[in-house]
Write a structure and sequence with these properties.
One of its GO terms (cellular component) is cytosol. One of its GO terms (molecular function) is protein-glucosylgalactosylhydroxylysine glucosidase activity. Belongs to the glycosyl hydrolase 65 family. InterPro entries: 6-hairpin_glycosidase_sf, 6hp_glycosidase-like_sf, Glyco_hydro_65_C, Glyco_hydro_65_M. With about 700 residues, the chain is an alpha+beta fold. Among the domains are: about 230 residues, Glycoside hydrolase, family 65, N-terminal domain (Beta-galactosidase, Chain A, domain 5); about 70 residues, no CATH class. Helices cover about 30% and strands about 25% of the residues. The protein has 16 helices and 30 strands. The chain has a nine-stranded antiparallel beta sheet with strand order 1-9-10-11-12-18-16-15-14, covered by helices on one side. It has a five-stranded antiparallel beta sheet with strand order 19-24-25-26-29. Helix 3 packs across helix 16, helix 4 packs parallel to helix 8 and helix 14 runs antiparallel to helix 15. It is globular and about 90 Å long.
Length: about 700
């Protein structure tokens, strides 16, 4: 790959802070390069607030070294096109390259390969040392050795402490190729490759099956190629391309690499998905990256991008929430409410595992955030099976019941109140009528009502009544939304809060009010706050066609992107979560929803493009909508759309693009249509069938 490739990040030295090293991750396994631990999805140890990702010892954290006193030239690269990290030693007469990757389709397998290649006509042996910190023991697992298998060593054991008393303690089984202290290319050899495999699974059978599959691919010379093929297919299917500044394109490819690494491969219906934490699967040991817990970060910040590009993975995220519904019901009961209250921090059970009680007790908007992801999914897929047969309706109903039980009637205002909450702005707690929380509760109840009607189920009268009569604070004089009852203009705010009413909530308001909310909160939002905040201000200004203001907000994100591997930090001073997928999710939403103007509604996918000055073209190759895959290319002058694929089971809905002017363009598979850039929508075509 050429040096200018925006999808390949290269360096001649590693960052001093090891937290900023890149990660290699699949849906089930993840590690940071050169680290001596890895994590397996859903494997937590510790009770309640102490529950954290269990450290699994990693044989993959080895590093090559050239013997002798001289310092050879070294280079490092993260290739986001192949999902592979590499370390190369360039010595007089030879190169040694170490590649590391989490196999995308064999999700229980990680692999290292080391290749020594002779560059001259010499015939002396060439030796490379391998430095490894690997010790087959863990502070979180009761590990014991088992018999070797097909040349691999074997350990297995359970986590030490269950998340809830009497609850399950997951078991880990690991097989790995023994690590030699050095590798030698014989005098008669020109080149040789050594493959080192690590398989980790929840059962001995799965670990052995994955290791054997890896060995078979090694024997065929195609292990890395099979990973690259699976990863490249995912990247092609989620392709987003920009004509714009190099730094923006690099950030885009970095975000896509790290976020897509976290989701299941296309052909893995049997693999349970365990959610996405703010720092991803590679992070989350005790004391790090929120212990690997799942927050609203998944449902609000990451999910919309995944939904637009890869709805099957979006469904897997929703199924994680359905599996943890019983824990959420228990949370509600313990706080004296009905229905289900999703935890502020979730691990394997859906019980609250936040170490600090105030967040679990008060930051209740997460329950509505979860349901909004279900609503967005339903609007873009019309997948009724998830709701009828797979537990989705039970979750919708339980969330609606929770919100109803959480409200109290104000005789004075003749409105329903939600009291004693912490809004997304965590600088304030125990407030009444958080605008975001109450607007989210209204949206939850409206969706539950619509969903019940679609499923031909009776609608409880209180759902509609409370949705109509819940208070969402509004200042009639200043024409803006106070963050909560008693908010004083100018009061500092931690992060995006009220601005989320405009997007993603799409709470009804005029352009004047939308502008006033942005103007009110932009100057008082903490500049040291979390990375995803500025993306939502950028989306708001794009909506109002204030392109320079949007760009200035988006630019703030770059202070959270570290070099050379584009690893995000939560806060611009380097504190907080690292490999901060939440910030990446917000950044991608600027591109996928801000630049395009895409908005998911009940009846259509709206568009209204707006590009800052330095961006001339955006191409999204695989937008999923109602069973269709659409390629959409946008410039300032023209929008081009083509349906490239349609599902057969269930059959895709025929689509049309309708401009605000009233012009209609049928979207047929394989036929490209273009029209001048203008607002409009993509919707079901009422007049034709496929």
């Amino acid at each position: 790959m050429a040096d200018g490739d925006p999808g390949v990040f290269t360096a001649t030295a590693l960052p001093e802070d090891p937290r900023l090293l890149p990660t290699v991750t699949s849906a089930f396994l993840g590690t940071r390069v050169f680290r001596d631990i890895l994590h397996a999805a859903g494997v937590y140890s510790g009770a309640a607030g102490d529950t954290h990702r269990a450290d699994v010892p990693s044989p993959l954290g080895l590093r090559m070294a050239a013997p002798g006193a001289h310092s050879p030239a070294e280079s490092f690269a993260l290739n986001t096109w192949t999902g592979t990290f590499s370390h190369t030693i360039q010595s007089p007469g030879y190169t040694a390259t170490h590649q590391l990757y989490a196999h995308h389709s064999l999700v229980h397998l990680m692999a290292s390969s080391i290749t020594i290649r002779r560059l001259d006509g010499s015939t002396h042996p060439i030796t490379v040392q391998l430095r490894s910190l690997f010790v087959p023991q863990s502070q979180d697992l009761d590990l014991r050795p088992g018999p070797d298998f097909q040349g691999a060593h074997y350990i297995y054991g359970q986590t030490l402490v269950a998340e809830v008393e009497g609850g399950p303690r997951p078991t880990v089984h690991m097989l790995w190729t023994p690590i030699p202290q050095s590798l030698t290319l014989g005098g008669e050899e020109r080149e040789r490759c050594w493959e080192l495999l690590t398989a980790v699974a929840g059962s001995e059978e799965e670990a052995k099956r994955s290791y054997s599959a890896g060995l078979s691919l090694v024997a065929a010379g195609s292990l890395h190629r099979s990973h690259v093929r699976a990863w490249a297919a995912l990247r092609r299917g989620c392709s987003v391309e920009l004509d714009g500044p190099l730094a923006l394109r690099q950030a885009l490819h970095g975000c896509l690499y790290y976020l897509l690494s976290a989701i299941p491969p296309r052909d893995s219906p049997g693999v349970l998905f365990h959610g996405i934490s703010p720092g991803g699967l590679s992070n989350g040991t005790r004391g790090e990256d929120y212990w690997g817990h799942v927050f609203w970060d998944q449902d609000t910040w990451m999910f919309p991008n995944i939904l637009l590009l890869y709805p099957e993975a979006a469904r897997a995220i929703l199924q994680y929430r359905i599996r943890t519904l019983e824990g959420a019901r228990r949370n509600a009961r313990e706080q004296g409410y009905e229905g289900a209250k999703f935890p502020w921090e979730s691990a394997a059970t859906g019980r609250e595992v936040c170490p600090e009680e105030i967040y679990g007790a008060q930051e209740i908007h997460v329950t509505g955030d979860v349901l909004m992801a279900f609503e967005q999914y339903y609007c873009t897929t019309q997948d009724q099976k998830l709701f009828r047969e797979d537990g989705g309706w039970e979750l919708v109903e339980a969330v609606a019941q929770y919100w109803c039980s959480r409200m109290v009637w104000s005789e004075e205002e003749q409105l329903y109140h939600i009291r004693g909450v912490m809004p997304p702005d965590e600088y304030h707690s125990q407030v009444d009528n958080s605008a975001y929380t109450n607007a989210m509760a209204r949206r939850s109840l409206n969706f539950a009502t619509d969903m019940a009607r679609d499923l031909l189920l009776p609608v409880p009268e209180e759902w509609e009544d409370r949705a109509r009569k819940i208070k969402v604070p509004f200042d009639e004089e200043r024409k803006y939304h106070p963050e909560y009852d008693g908010y004083t203009p100018g009061e500092p705010v931690k992060q995006a809060d009220v601005v989320l009413l405009g997007f993603p909530l799409m709470h009804p308001m005029s352009a004047e009010v939308r502008r006033n909310d942005l103007e009110m909160y932009e100057p008082v939002t903490d500049p040291a706050g979390p990375a995803m905040t500025w993306s939502m201000f950028a989306v708001g200004w794009l909506e109002l066609k204030e392109l320079q203001r949007a760009w200035s907000q988006l630019e703030k994100c770059f202070s959270n992107i570290t070099e050379p591997f584009k690893v995000w930090v939560e806060n611009s001073d380097g504190s907080g979560a690292v490999n901060f997928l939440t910030g990446m999710g917000g950044f991608l939403q600027v591109i996928l929803f801000g630049f395009t103007g895409f908005r998911i509604t009940r009846s259509s996918l709206l568009f209204d493009p707006a590009f800052p000055d330095d961006i001339t073209k955006l191409k999204v190759s695989s937008i999923s909508y109602l069973g269709n895959k659409l390629e959409v290319t946008i410039t300032r002058e023209e929008i081009r759309m083509e349906v490239t694929e349609t599902s057969q089971d269930p059959p895709a809905s025929p689509l049309e693009a309708v401009l605000e002017s009233g012009q209609r363009f049928p979207l047929w598979e394989g036929q490209s249509v273009s029209f001048p850039t203008a607002p409009g929508c993509i919707q079901r075509s009422p007049s034709r069938t496929l």
